[in-house]
Structure formats: C-alpha cells, structure tokens
C-alpha cells in the first residue's frame, strides 16, 4: 500500500495532534485547578500522561515510515521502542484498574472514600503500577537479545512489537510466545477481569439501593 501512504498518514497525523492537544489541555486544567486535586482526577492525570507517552512512542516513527523519512531502525532502538510501548501499556492498564477501584469506593462506601484513597495511597498506586510494568516487560528484552538473527530484517509493522521482532530470528521462539501470553494475562488480562468485577459489584449495589428505595416508597404510600 505504498502508493496510499500519504493518504493513510493524514488521519493518523490528525489523531496524534488531537491526542497531544486533548491530553495536554486536560493535564494543564487539572494541575491549575486546585479543586480537581482529588484521587479521581489524579488518576485521570496519570492516564493522560500514559496516553501522551504511548502515542509518542509509536506514531512519530509510523509517520516517518509513511512519509518515507525514516524506514529503518537499529536493533537497540527497536528494543527500546518495544519496551516503551509495552511498559506504558501495562502501566495504563493498572491505572484503569485503580480508577475502577476509586469508583467502587466512591459509590459503594462513600463515607470511607477520603480515608481509603489518600494522596499517599494514590502515589503508592502509581509507583506500584510502574514497578509492576517494569518487572513484567524487562525480561522480554533479554528473551529477544538471546536469539540469533541471521535471516531477513524487515519488520511487517510500522513499529516494533515483541513477536514481530522474535519472528526475525532463525531459532525456536516458543519461549517468547509463551512469555508474551503469560505477560498479557498477568497484566491486562487480570486487570480487565478485576475491572469487570468492580463494575458488577457497583451495579449490584445500585440495584440493591434502588430496590430498597422502591420498597420504602411503596410502604410509605
């Protein structure tokens, strides 16, 4: 699709510009407005930073490929890009989980909200998200470095991803495949399940509250 690269790059460039502008405005607004210095908005701030970093780690290089400005990348640069993408993605997943927990406490146990989600707790959640992301994704670098690369060196994507790089090797990549599956399940997989459970609990609580209110209204009438 080389002949269409210019047309493909236009919406991609517009979306990247919108992401930069939207997230930057959100960050500036939350930082300047003291009334927004609450756990929910701090988590939203973290999410905006992750969105900025994730899009910046992928889109500029993709645009370089589409515009034929930079169609090559060093092996070390490829590993750095891959690590950045997955590191930020896993951290973003953890922040989404923290936001779901924040909503659960705010709705189901509002009287304890300020006691549970203090600024110290929010800061620790951010640190834990970064440490977990690093511990999950750092081994992938060594799993790729140990492989011998003696075949072609053309990536089938506009950015570096784990299995895409591993398939360039002329050796068995079963360990890489299984590690990728395990890492995905232990990060985004478990986070998605936990988020779903939290919103099911919120929904059940709201149904119970509405049911009790309806019964009380019927008794009063």
UniProtKB/TrEMBL annotation:
<keyword id="KW-0552">Olfaction</keyword>
<keyword id="KW-0807">Transducer</keyword>
<keyword id="KW-0812">Transmembrane</keyword>
<comment type="similarity">
    <text>Belongs to the G-protein coupled receptor 1 family.</text>
</comment>
<keyword id="KW-0675">Receptor</keyword>
<keyword id="KW-0297">G-protein coupled receptor</keyword>
<dbReference type="Pfam" id="PF13853">
    <property type="entry name" value="7tm_4"/>
</dbReference>
<keyword id="KW-1003">Cell membrane</keyword>
<dbReference type="InterPro" id="IPR000276">
    <property type="entry name" value="GPCR_Rhodpsn"/>
</dbReference>
<feature type="domain" description="G-protein coupled receptors family 1 profile">
    <location>
        <begin position="22"/>
        <end position="221"/>
    </location>
</feature>
<dbReference type="InterPro" id="IPR017452">
    <property type="entry name" value="GPCR_Rhodpsn_7TM"/>
</dbReference>
<feature type="transmembrane region" description="Helical">
    <location>
        <begin position="79"/>
        <end position="101"/>
    </location>
</feature>
<dbReference type="GO" id="GO:0005886">
    <property type="term" value="C:plasma membrane"/>
</dbReference>
<feature type="transmembrane region" description="Helical">
    <location>
        <begin position="177"/>
        <end position="202"/>
    </location>
</feature>
<dbReference type="InterPro" id="IPR000725">
    <property type="entry name" value="Olfact_rcpt"/>
</dbReference>
<feature type="transmembrane region" description="Helical">
    <location>
        <begin position="6"/>
        <end position="28"/>
    </location>
</feature>
<feature type="transmembrane region" description="Helical">
    <location>
        <begin position="40"/>
        <end position="59"/>
    </location>
</feature>
<keyword id="KW-0472">Membrane</keyword>
<dbReference type="GO" id="GO:0004930">
    <property type="term" value="F:G protein-coupled receptor activity"/>
</dbReference>
<dbReference type="GO" id="GO:0007608">
    <property type="term" value="P:sensory perception of smell"/>
</dbReference>
<keyword id="KW-0716">Sensory transduction</keyword>
<dbReference type="InterPro" id="IPR050402">
    <property type="entry name" value="OR51/52/56-like"/>
</dbReference>
<protein>
    <recommendedName>
        <fullName>Olfactory receptor</fullName>
    </recommendedName>
</protein>
<keyword id="KW-1133">Transmembrane helix</keyword>
<feature type="transmembrane region" description="Helical">
    <location>
        <begin position="121"/>
        <end position="144"/>
    </location>
</feature>
């Amino acid at each position: 699709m080389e002949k269409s690269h210019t047309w493909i790059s236009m919406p991609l460039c517009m979306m990247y510009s919108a992401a930069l502008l939207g997230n930057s405005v959100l960050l500036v607004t939350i930082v300047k407005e003291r009334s927004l210095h609450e756990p929910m908005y701090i988590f939203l701030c973290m999410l905006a930073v992750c969105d900025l970093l994730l899009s910046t780690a992928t889109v500029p290089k993709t645009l370089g490929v589409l515009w034929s400005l930079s169609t090559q990348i060093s092996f070390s640069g490829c590993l750095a890009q891959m690590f950045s993408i997955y590191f930020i993605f896993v951290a973003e997943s953890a922040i989404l989980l923290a936001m779901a927990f924040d909503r659960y406490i705010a709705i189901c146990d509002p009287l304890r909200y300020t006691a549970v989600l203090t600024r110290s707790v929010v800061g620790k959640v951010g640190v834990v998200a970064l440490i977990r992301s690093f511990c999950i994704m750092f081994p992938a670098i060594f799993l790729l470095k140990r492989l011998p690369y003696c075949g072609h060196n053309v990536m089938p994507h506009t950015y570096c991803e784990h299995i895409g790089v591993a398939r360039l090797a002329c050796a068995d990549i079963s360990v890489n495949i299984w590690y990728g599956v395990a890492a995905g399940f232990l990060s985004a997989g478990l986070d998605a399940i936990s988020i779903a459970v939290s919103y099911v609990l919120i929904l059940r609580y709201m149904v119970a509250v509405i049911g009790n209110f309806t019964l009380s209204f019927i008794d009063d009438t």
